[in-house]
Structures are given as structure tokens and as C-alpha cells.
Specification:
The complex is a heterodimer of chains A (about 240) and B (about 250). Helix content of chain A is about 75%, strand content about 0%. With about 240 residues, chain A is an all-alpha fold. Chain A has one domain. In chain A, helix 1 packs antiparallel against helix 2. The two termini of chain A are about 35 Å apart. In chain B, about 45% of the residues are buried. The model of chain B has no long low-confidence stretch (mean pLDDT about 85). In chain B, helix 4 packs parallel to helix 7. Chain B is mainly alpha-helical. Chain B has one domain. The chains are: A mainly alpha (about 240), B mainly alpha (about 250). At the A-B interface, helix 1, helix 7 and helix 8 of A face helix 2, helix 8 and helix 9 of B.
Chain lengths: ~240, ~250
Amino acid sequence: MRAIWFVSQIALFGLIASQMINTQEIPDYFHYYVAGLSVMTLYSAAIFIGFDIYEEAEHGVFEYLLSLPVSRRQLVLGRSIGGGLRSFIYVGPLIVFSLFVIGAINPLSFAVSLIALFLFSFGVSGMSITIAVLIKSSDRFDILMGVLDALMVRLSTAMYPLAFVQKANPFYGWATSFNPITFAADLFRWGTGLEAIITPQNPLLPFLGVVAFFGLFTLLGVTIYERMIEGGGWQ
Amino acid sequence: MVEHDFRNFFRYKWWLVGLISMNLTDLFIMAIVYNTILNPSLSAQIGGYFNFFAPGLAVIGLFASAFMIGREINMERRREVHHYMLSLPMTRLELAIGRVLSGGLRGMLYMSPLLLTCFIFLGFPTISQLLLILAVLFMLAIGISGLSIAIAVSTSSLEKFITARGLVYYTLFFCSSVFYPLSLIQSLGASGKFPMALVLLAEINPLSGASDMIRSFLLPGYSFSYTSILNVAVFSAIFTFGAAFAYMKILERK
């Protein structure tokens, strides 16, 4: 299903929409969009760990996990990394496909951007776990993640460069500048050699942004997970 | 039957609020940013992306919500709730038409705030134009509902239904004039960059017909065409009766 969405976004929307764009402003929108789409797909896949938590709670697996001889901290960290890794493996073939579409890459910068994408997917999994544990209702979680997905993807550089978001609305531009999807998308483009059309000149800034995002949600996830589930708190 | 399906629809009211806000995000963020990066000649031709996209968004909303009935029918079939449905004191035809009709009406209900938003920003049509818009959108909604039911009763698992729905969604959305003008797809086809079969699909796509009809009433530079209404009517007739027939036959067979 995700593969159908991905391929149709590239072969239909990406191809046609690239003909609408002002080539003076964005010379190669098609490749720009393909790179952004990979990050959008990774984000959506990493969010799914939250749904697994509800399913485990429904089937009583939660109690089993709590009884394992690991600390709560190890448990939530393991889940964040597991969720991130799983989504990365899941989206891996799609990323390879997008690299094939984009073309040549610089191996060193691509390796750096790949590490950043790993951290990004761990961070998104941590965020999903944190929200799932806080909300405790799969329906509300589903709605909130849908709205959050729409806002985070639209207010990022996944679909358009930052300069144009700022031009459209300064508030949108401000929100886009601090969005982890922006950091991940810019780094991925830098790694794939599309850096000419990304906004930040220094890739260290988005890299630090992704690391901060990962650190924040891992810490939050550990703290909230510990507080919310003890003594039947999940119920 | 219609009342039953409407009650089900309102059980997901927060989900609907979430879906509407997602649609509005497309309009108030994505379309506004696309306004700034659009090719200037195309922008002049379509009158800005925001204006162009607003009618398309109402059609997307209609499609997504009218399609929801299929998921419920697929679930009923898997959980064998259809045995209860078949035991109700009504004919099979009434049952089938009721389901198609309620799917369409739910689509109209969901789409109305999006259409109103479109009117607020683009201007209101005349009464006769409004009635024509509502009539065509209703025809489209029952056609979509029928298509969704036909897929739901022909697929045995939720995964198969969701995959088929994805294929239909993306093909019909992206091969239409909802997101971009039809002339752009035609020019890509003429230059050999896009398969002519998909160009033809975009031309006869009822989503293109409905979007362009609304644009012809609200935006300058668009001419009204009876062909678009004909496309919607043919689509609607095929899928309404096709789905009703499939629903009756497949439910009785199980």
C-alpha cells in the first residue's frame, strides 16, 4: 500500500507537478520532490509504533513486557530504536528507488545523511510512543497523528524549499525552520547531491537539529513511559 | 438503511473533524506555498494555485468520505453482519440502493464545509449554478459510493480492500485536474512524457469533470462544458447499478 502510494506520488504527482513549478526558482523540482517524499514516507512508517502499543495493551502483551528483566528505560529506548529501525528497513527499498531516480550521490555525505535519517526515525518512534502513552486512546491517537502528520509534512521542506514557505507566510516559515522533517529532508538532499536547492548552507545545523529531536523524544519517552504505566497506570 | 449508515458515520465524528482539518491544511498551507513557486505563465492562466485547488479539494473530500461506506461493508461481510442485513424486511434491491445512497449522502455532508470554504474564498455561484453543482456532486458521490461498495464486496480481506482502495484513490486523484490543470497533463502526453492512456483517463475522469465544472462557475478563464456532466453521469450510472447488482448477488451467494 505504502509502495503504491510512493510510486504513484513519484510517477504521477511528482512528474506532473514538476511541470507547474517555476524552473527559474527551483531548477529541478522533480528530484527535489522525490527526496522529500522519501523522508515523508519514513516519518509515516515510524509513527506506526504507536499503534502497536495500543494493540499490545489490548492483547495483554503490555504486562508481559513490563515483567521482563529489563529496566523501563531500556524498554522504551529499545522500543524507540526498534520502531525506527523497523521503519527504516521497511522504507529502505523505497529510499533505494528514490536514489535510483535522483542519480549520483557522494558516498561520504550520503553516509552522514543516512545516520541522520536513522536518528530521525528513532526520534519519530519516540515521539509516537510518548504521544500514545499520554493519550491512551487509539481513536484519539489516530486522529491526532493524522492532523500532526498533515501539519508537520506541510510545514516542512519536504515539498518545497524554506525560502518559499517564508515568502508565503512568515509564521509558516518560522514553524518550518524548527521542524525535524525539514532537518531530515535537507540532510537527505545534501547527501544525495541536491544541496544546491536546500536552504541551509551548513549541513551541521540540520544534523544537530535531528540529534536534538532524537534526544528530546527519547528522554521524554523514557520519563513519561515510566510514570504513566506503573501500577496499572495504562488502564 | 440510510439512517443506519448515517448513525455509523457520526460515530466517527472526531475522526471526521481530523479529516477536515487535514484537508484544510492542504488548502491553507500547501496551496498557499505552491502559489509562490508556480510557473508565472501557468499562475496567470489558472488564477493562482489557491483558487485553482479550492474546488479540487471539495471534490477530494467528497471522494474520501463517500468511499468510507466500502470499508464498513467490507467489515460487515468479514464479520458476517450481512446475514442480519439480509434478514431485514426489505427487498435486496432496496437494501443495495439504500447503501449506495447513504454512502453518497454521507459524502455530500462531509464535503459541504469544504465547498462552503471554497465559495467564501472564490465567491458564491448563482442559485441555478449552485443547484447544478450540488446535483453533479451528488451524482458523483453515489457513483463513488457504488465503486467503493463494488470493491468492498469483491475483496475478501481488509488488506485487499485497502490495497485496491489505494490503487483507485491515487490513480483517480493524480490522473485528474484536481491538483493541476488538464492542459498540463495533455501537454505532457503530447510531448511523450506521460502515457496517453493516463491522459485519456484524466480527460474522462469524473473528478476532473466535477472540479472543472465548479471552476467554470467561480473562476474566470474556465468554460463550462456539458461533457464534464456527461462523464460524471456515465460514471455514476455504471457504478450505482453495477454496485447494487454486485452487492445483491455476492451477499446472497455467501
